[in-house]
Amino acid sequence: MAPEESSDKRVEDTRLLEGKGNFVDDLKLDNMAYLGLVRSPYAHARIVRIDFSRAKEMPDFIDGITGEDIKETTAPIFVVPGARETKRRQLAIGKSRFVGEPVAAFLSRTKYTVEDIIEAIEVEYEELAPIMSIEDSKKADVKIYEEWPDNISFQNGAKKGNAEGAISSSKNVIKARFGIKRQAGVPIEPRSYVAEYDKGEDLFTVEATTQRPHGIQNFVATELRVPPKKIHVIVKDVGGGFGTKGAQSYPEPILACILAKKTGYLVKATSTRSEDLFESAAGRDQFCEMELACDDGGKITGFSARLDANVGVSGSLSTSTRNSVQLLPEVYKIPNFDIQASCYLTNEAPLGPVRGAGRPEAAFFMERALDIMARQLSIDPIEFRRRNLIQPSEMPFDNGAGAVYDSGNFPLLLDKIAPSYIELCKWRDYENASKSHLVAGVGLCMEVEDTGAGLRESAKVSIDIDGKVNVVTGSSPHGQGLETSLAELCARELGVSLKEVIVRYGDTDLIPFSVGTFGSRSMSTGGSAVVDATRKLKEEIAKRAAAFMGVKPEDISIENGQIVKSQESRSQSAKTVLMDFKALVGRTGTLEVYSDYTLKGLPFASGAHACALTIDRESGKVRIHRYVVVDDCGRVVNSMIVDGQLHGGVIHGIGGSLFEEMVYTDQGQLLTTNFLDYTMPSAIEIPDQMDLIHVETPSPITLNGAKGVGESGTIAAYPCVFNALNDALCRAGVKTQLNLAPAFPEDVVRALSAIGR
C-alpha cells in the first residue's frame, strides 16, 4: 500500500526558518546569574583541597559550592534499575574519575567572567593511575569504585538451544571480532538550562534542553530529595538530541537549582561545545567476539557472542548491551545461540544512548558475520540472507533473546532491494574494470529494531471556545517534525484540516505524566496515545451532541469537522449537519479528554539497505556514490518527515562508520574537544544519490499502525557501509578485513598495503 500523502507542509518549519525559535539559551532575564563548573584535568585523582579565596575577591563572583557542601542534602546520581549504583554525586567527592568531571560549581554575575573565575579557583589533586581500556578494567588492578569487587557495572545475556554443540558439529564456522568505538551524539545545540526558585511556593522551575521533561523532573526531584511536584520543567524548542539529552542525569540542572535556592538568582547554564564533548553521554564503544556456524545448505545452525562495552565511569543509563543482546539474532531464524555481555568501567565520561543505543552494534556484528560467512560459502549475500529469514507467517516471532517481533515482511524487503543491488553490482564491476586508481564495492544489510521503548505515553486532546483542537503530548520534539505528525493523526481522526490542530508539549504542568522522545517511540507510542485521546474525544462529542439534540449517540458521526446525524429509512439514508465543534463547546462547555496509553508489546520496524562506494588506492579515501533504503516503519503518517528521518539517520551512520571517534590518550585526556578534531560528515561526504523505497507492514500493536523511523537509517548504515568497504578491499586482493568502526583513510591504506603479504 502506498503511503498516505499529506497536502500540508510541516507546521513548525516556518517559525524556525524565520528565526523565531524559542531556545533556552535565548533567555535573557533580570536577576540572572551564570553557572560555572570547575572540571578535573585528570582522569583519576584524589581531591586534596578546593580553595575559593581568590575567586571570592572577584567582583562578579556570587557564591560557590563543592561536593562536600551538598553531600548531606543530595542523593547520588540517578541510575536505572539493574545497573550497579555508583553513589557518585553531581560534584566529585573525594576523587575525580574522568577528565571534565565537575569538582566545584559557582555563580558569576556575567557569562564573560566565568572562565576567569574558573582559573581563580584553586584545586589541589593527587594524581592516580587511570584505567583506559576494557582489558585493564578486566584486570581490576585499579578499581574505579573502591567499594565494588570489580569494574563491572552491568551484565546480561541470552541463550537458546545448544550453541556450543551447533558450532562444534559444523564444518562451516567463522570467527571474527567486531567493534564500534566511542562516538558523540553532537546535537547542533549544546545542553542548556535556566533554574529559578520560588521561595513562597517552595517551587523550582527548570527550563531545559531535554528529550524528556518528566525525566528531568524525576532526576532533579530524586537527587534534590524533594517531591516531583516541587519541580516544574518547561521545554521549548530543542536543537537536536540523538539520545544525549534523553537518558542521562547531568549536573547542571541540579546544581543550578541548588544555587538558585541559595542565592535567589535565576541561574543559567549553557555548555560550551568542548564541555558538551567532555561530558554529554557518548555512545557505542562496544565490541564483539563472535563464532557463527552454518550447514552446507547455507542455513545458520548457531552462534556464540561475547559483547564487551566500555561505559566509562557509568551514568544514568550505561546499559546499551540490553538492546544489543535482544536484537543480535536480527531478522533471522537461528535455532541455537549463546550471548553474554558485560559493561566495564574505565576513567572516561559516562556512556549513554546515542541514536540506536545498542541497536546499531547488534546489526553491525551480525550483518558483518553474515557477509563473511556468505563469502566463505560462495553464496550470494542476498540468497544467503533469504535462506535464513523469519517468514511473515511466523509473526509474531519470539527471537529467543528477549524480543517478540510483532509484524514484518522480511522477504519482501529483500525482494524490493534486489533490483537495486543487482544494478549496483553491475556498476561496481564496470568501475573496477575501467578505473585502476579506484576500487569499487557494494554492500548489503538488513536491520530490525524495537520502536516503542517505554510502552506507555500520555496525551490530552481538547476543543476550545473557538473550535480549535488542542493536543498536548507527553512526547517532546527536538527536530523530528513531531508537531506535524501528531497534528496529522488527530486531524485525520476528526476529519479537520491540519491548521485546525495546535500541538503543545514540553511542560510538566500541562500533562501529569510522560516518558518522552527517544528510541523511535514518538509515533508508535506517543502517536497511539494521541489517537486514543482523539477517539475518546469523538465519543464525548457524540455523547454531548446526542444529549443536546435528543438522539442516540450511535446516530452521531463526525465528518469534515462537522457533527452529523445519520437517518436511515426503508427507501434512503440521509445525513444532517447538526453543528460544528465551536457551536457544541459554546452550548455544552469545554471538551477535554486524557489518555494514559500503554502498548501491549513492542512494535518492530525493519529495513534492507544497499550501498555502492569506491576507495582511492593511494589516499584510502572512501566515497559513497549511491545508497538505497527499503524501509518498513509500519504505517507512514507523513512521507516527507519519514524521508527526512531516513536521510539524516543514514548520514549519521555513515559518520560513525567513516569519520567519528572520541579519542582519549593513555592518561585519559580527551583529544577530540571541538569540531576541528571531532570530524562529522559534511555535504561533501554524503552519498551522491540516496534512494528511498517504502514498505508498509502496519503494526497490530499501535493504534495508528506506525512503528517508528528515527533510528532505522543509522542502525543499518554501519553494516551496510562496512560490507561495501570490505567488498571493495576483497576485490583489490586484500585478504584481511576491516571490522572496527570508524574506518579512517589510514586504516584503508594500511589494509591495501597488506596485499600479497
CATH topology of the largest domain: Aldehyde Oxidoreductase, domain 4
Mean pLDDT: 93
Describe the biggest sheet?
Answer: 7 strands, mixed
The fraction of residues assigned to DSSP E strands is 25-35%
Radius of gyration: 28 Å
CA(first)-CA(last) distance = 53 Å
| SS content category | alpha+beta
Percent helix? 25-40%
CATH second-level architecture of the largest domain: 2-Layer Sandwich
In CATH, what is the homologous superfamily of the largest domain?
Answer: Aldehyde oxidase/xanthine dehydrogenase, molybdopterin binding domain
Strand count:
29
Structure explained in plain terms:
The protein is an alpha+beta fold. The protein has three domains: 17-128 and 188-240 and 246-279, Aldehyde Oxidoreductase, domain 3, CATH 3.90.1170; 283-451 and 602-752, Aldehyde Oxidoreductase, domain 4, CATH 3.30.365.10; 458-598, Aldehyde Oxidoreductase, domain 4 (2-Layer Sandwich). 29% of the residues lie in helices and 27% in strands. It is built from 19 helices and 29 strands. A seven-stranded mixed beta sheet has the order 3-5-1-12-9-10-11, sandwiched between helices. A six-stranded mixed beta sheet has the order 7-15-14-13-8-29. Strands 18-26-27-28 form a four-stranded mixed beta sheet, with helices on both faces. Helix 11 (359-377) packs parallel to helix 18 (712-731). The longest helix is centred in the last third of the chain and has 28 residues, at 522-549. The two termini are 53 Å apart. The model is unreliable at 1-7 (pLDDT under 50).
